[in-house]
Amino acid sequence: MFGLFRHINVSTKLLLSSLASLVALLAVGIMGGISLANMDAQLQRMYSGNVLGIEKAGDAERAVRRIAVASADYVLADPADRSSVRQDIQNYDADFAKAIEEYLPIIVRPQERDIINRLRQAYGGYMQAVNQLVAAQNSDLAMQVLHQQVTPKRTEVNNVIAELVQSNAQMAEDIKKEADAMYRRVQFTFVIVIVAGVGLSLGLNLLVSRTITKPLALVTAAAGRVAEGDLRGETVTVNTRDEIGRLTDSFNQMAGNLKSLLRQIADAAESVASASEEMSAGTEQSSQAVAEVSQASQELAAGAGLQSRKVQDTMASTEEFSAAIQQIASTAQQVAAAAQVTSRRAEDGDQAMRRAGAEMDKITTSSREISGMINELGNRSQAIGQIVDLISGIANQTNLLALNAAIEAARVGEHGRGFAVVADEVRKLAEQSGQAAQDIADLIRQVQEDTSKAVEAMESNAQVVESGWRVITEGAGAFQQIKEDVNSVSRQIQEVSRSTEELAKGSEEIVNAITAIGEIAQHVSEASQSVAAGAEEQSASIEELASSAEFLANLGQQLQQAVLKFKL
């Protein structure tokens, strides 16, 4: 029963307690009403059966007494006045008969009826005596009848009336005793009902108070611990399903959610601190990478300037080579015009060929240097590409860290709104870093393409130089042959003329290739400047990223300090 009562709603418990008090009060009222009704019935019974009987007996006794007085008056009255006295006696006799007739309906016990019958008999004898008195011829006889018959009969009638009154008095006494007994029963019943009602109401109130105050005390104590930051206590256990039980369940759920939230905040703070450390490390790596990119850009610019100067030197050598070829052509024409001076000029031609060989050596050396520089430029481009890849990786990692930070901020809710803004700024910086890295990668690819073209041009230049070297070698052999056999000069003139034409074409190609190399060097210089500018922008972005990382670290420390106030 108690277990079932614990699961009833608090409002129902209070209603049951009030109903118990109301039922007890209603029972007392009903019993009081019933008792009053019974007492009223007893009073009605006493009045109708006893008081009214005594009253009617008194009326009868009064009529008998008046008849006695009238009889005495009749004896003492004058003959002229006796008729009125006789009329009074008749009236009094009618009053007695009326009193007896009115008494008959209220007879309760059979003994009353016996008394009434004896009263009638006694009264009949009494009236016979009175009638004898009235019929007496003289006053002496009337006086004799009065003393000998009327007075004894009157005494007999009064005795019966007294017995009737005594019977009604006894009946009234019995009714009074019954009423007293009823009063005592009602009083005892009232005490029992009141005590039972008070006990039931008090028990229900104590039960309701116990089922309410005890769980509330547990919840209040647990709430006090939570307010002090102590979440290590066990959940509050209340074996009720009323509002208090639901309140306890809600409190336990709130405490559990608060505990989970604080743990999540602690984990988020730790994650923020770790992410800020990783971000700081990433910014340091990015800073180093940017420094390397800046240094590589400076080296690339220096290499491009050196390459430009080498190209100018090569162009000067090529112009000299072209002039030498023109001179060879003029010499060949002169040889064709005057074969007789060939012998003298053969020595001069041999020397000229030697100078051409020296110039070709210079061209070969310059071509090799240019080729080495271009290869070095390609290697630098690859190194820059690796650095750009590293920057892209760092930007992607930073973007992921910003995304994780935004997720953690969304999980924290209102307290993480500032953290979400910082995470969004970090993500934007990461995107800008990634875009800058992509621009650098595009420039590097363009430089690599131009470098590949320059390498191809240098390979072609090397072939032309080798061809020129072979031509010079052949020319030297021809001069030797001229020395040995002047007669064969005429035949060799045509071959020399054709060779000089090929050399002229080759020199033009060399000039064009060197011009292209100069343009490439110019592009490389411009690209290196763009890379340097991008590196500066990247450095500024990394500084902003470092500032954001420091802010995140401070925010993580603040979150950890806030969580340390609670005992999980």
From TrEMBL:
Coiled coil: none annotated. One of its GO terms (cellular component) is plasma membrane. Its main location: membrane. The chain crosses the membrane at residues 14-37, 186-208. The keyword DNA-binding does not apply. InterPro entries: Chemotax_Me-accpt_rcpt (IPR004090), HAMP_dom (IPR003660), HlyB_4HB_MCP (IPR024478), MCPsignal_dom (IPR004089). Keywords: Cell membrane, Membrane, Transducer, Transmembrane, Transmembrane helix. GO terms for biological process: chemotaxis; signal transduction. GO terms for molecular function: transmembrane signaling receptor activity. Residues 210-263 form the HAMP domain. SUPFAM superfamilies: Methyl-accepting chemotaxis protein (MCP) signaling domain. Pfam families: 4HB_MCP_1 (PF12729), HAMP (PF00672), MCPsignal (PF00015). Residues 282-518 form the Methyl-accepting transducer domain. It is found in: Cell membrane. SMART domains: HAMP, MA. Belongs to the methyl-accepting chemotaxis (MCP) protein family. This is Methyl-accepting chemotaxis sensory transducer. It comes from Kyrpidia tusciae (strain DSM 2912 / NBRC 15312 / T2) (Bacillus tusciae).
